[in-house]
What we know:
alpha/beta; seven-stranded antiparallel beta sheet; 37 strands
Amino acid sequence: xxxxxxxxxxxxxxxxxxxxxxxxxxxxxxxxxxxxxxxxxxxxxxxxxxxxxxxxxxxxxxxxxxxxxxxxxxxxxxxxxxxxxxxxxxxxxxxxxxxxxxxxxxxxxxxxxxxxxxxxxxxxxxxxxxxxxxxxxxxxxxxxxxxxxxxxxxxxxxxxxxxxxxxxxxxxxxxxxxxxxxxxxxxxxxxxxxxxxxxxxxxxxxxxxxxxxxxxxxxxxxxxxxxxxxxxxxxxxxxxxxxxxxxxxxxxxxxxxxxxxxxxxxxxxxxxxxxxxxxxxxxxxxxxxxxxxxxxxxxxxxxxxxxxxxxxxxxxxxxxxxxxxxxxxxxxxxxxxxxxxxxxxxxxxxxxxxxxxxxxxxxxxxxxxxxxxxxxxxxxxxxxxxxxxxxxxxxxxxxxxxxxxxxxxxxxxxxxxxxxxxxxxxxxxxxxxxxxxxxxxxxxxxxxxxxxxxxxxxxxxxxxxxxxxxxxxxxxxxxxxxxxxxxxxxxxxxxxxxxxxxxxxxxxxxxxxxxxxxxxxxxxxxxxxxxxxxxxxxxxxxxxxxxxxxxxxxxxxxxxxxxxxxxxxxxxxxxxxxxxxxxxxxxxxxxxxxxxxxxxxxxxxxxxxxxxxxxxxxxxxxxxxxxxxxxxxxxxxxxxxxxxxxxxxxxxxxxxxxxxxxxxxxxxxxxxxxxxxxxxxxxxxxxxxxxxxxxxxxxxxxxxxxxxxxxxxxxxxxxxxxxxxxxxxxxxxxxxxxxxxxxxxxxxxxxxxxxxxxxxxxxxxxxxxxxxxxxxxxxxxxxxxxxxxxxxxxxxxxxxxxxxxxxxxxxxxxxxxxxxxxxxxxxxxxxxxxxxxxxxxxxxxxxxxxxxxxxxxxxxxxxxxxxxxxxxxxxxxxxxxxxxxxxxxxxxxxxx
Length: 896
């Protein structure tokens, strides 16, 4: 890949304008620093902060995960800060993309800024703008879409809004980091056109259009045919493309513990190694400078970038005009009014305003996959109509209260967020049961049953209620820190236990946890633990689990510590008794992370068998006027650190749905998952909603969608497969350390268009509450794109032909004109069709409106590898407008 600067058609700001002298002042500060200070600046001071230099007025810049909320800086390991501080928890990022709503993306960016200031954070490590290349990708839920244009549109608005409010966003993971298996070691091998046209565009656009202040480099590497190297050492990508060609003036930060070298990463273009103060740069960069291996001048640009970032986020006061983007206003409201002002005006606290916005976002993101007309309950009022939104008058039998069966493990114990570094403790949690109950008419009978099991691990052990210290008898556990010789360093009673022991002293190698566990209920109990590393666990002297493999920071990078598989023993109880738990667990001393112990104590009470749970749920469905079944994935399935082995729903949830559909024809199925799962019963269900991982307002948003308060107007940002064998990229397992991107440009739905396979639901699909007619499409100005190279505007006229006010997402796809010479040998291969633009419109019943859709010039261009520049593809193009990639109703031709 060439290092020269290439001509591009997008607006670019290659250099920082210094109209107010800020850059000159920053440069003077950088020149005044000692070599020791320069080195300290490019290495983190700790887990989440950069190094302050008081003599120049530089304060520490604080960073925080994450994509579903700002966790703050209190937790050293994923999920470990439980109880430390709460945060507004957004739905999965895919849910935001599913709205296709740029106003909601802008308001989400404002919320990130507000939350960051609340938690003392300057830079949020988000959004993740990698593509959903394979549906089994472990962090699929954390990405926006399988399409680069939709990803970029959402990301640009979110990043811009946050930074306009003075909080930086570090977009990640640059680049082609699209799976989790061996993620710290593999090389993504893809050709230059695929890089340029598919995987780089979202990053390019957040640099050009949102002026992103930070980019995070990936753990993995890239082989583009000319250079094969870890991303942090890939000079053509980090320096040649990102900095030199695109004019990125922000900070390239490493993913945590991703830096592997000194010289290679310095030369490659890394600016900040995180965390610190140890690691390759912390341990050896200063010596490398002193020895001449690294020139001090090579640090100057990195230092300048860090000072610029600090100034932008308010951590460096130059005593003069500020750089653009340091304003401190927020805008959660749709009219752009600052949230603090609006909250005061409406009598709401900031957290209440955040919850109201998130409630709207969740409801709007829900995708109606199916909503077939069903007959009303025998003898009730009403005519045949779609089941959602639920109409109690049409469902209840005359003279008796409405009976609703709420079934499924995701109804009683919903999965709110994916596993991994995006973990936050929510400000509040709304559940489907409480919110649906509150929204139903007074007197409604709500029958609630699990019906199935979706989690392999038993529930957490009730330490404060069931356990006592065997030495003192006090409620809780006896916790002892042990040194390498088994000597006790510290011993205490822990009244509670959340599965973690944090900030363990450096000389401890193990912790011993003991407890007497009260087992009062007659029947079969399961008791055990999920842990990592060297351990021995017994219950009543019976060995539950042992391990002799010492784990280190790799267990953090693979997320193996997040949801360890629990090992249990069964204890049969006839009379109330006490079981003795004794566990010796490894202290994990992870480079770059605080030392910790992981021990998820679990306990399953005696209860109904799997078949008995199913029977009870089916009986409730048969009795009810309408059944709502909420199913989905769990934290054991969707998580950072590992990819999924398949696309099946966990446990026996499919069987639950099948039996409930047989028992009650008026059944709504709600899928609570971030990434695609197979739905073998989809065609048999009258109404199916895809509800994502809803975050703290999962319950309120779902209730609003089901009961008619807010239209579920989401559209799929990815393709839902009907069969596993049809998935274009069924896995992303490296072979000999390499992930081959053999599909090239045909990522996601583009590959489905190439093969013609039929998915369960296509990219862009979503029914909402109404039907829409597409009346006409007109190119505004009818440009000659070959000559102008400008964006294209397409006016699409649509009519709401249904009986309810509704929202439509007008989608425009581009395809080569079949009558042109696009298949000639000298014309580059292109996908069958690809997303060119979209617009959201609202209309009352019977109302006609026009959506103006902007198709960027880049959508009509290809990357000319020999010339190293963008060129408008030869031959004409056709614009196709419709409701999804497989429901295209209008066309307009662009001349060549």
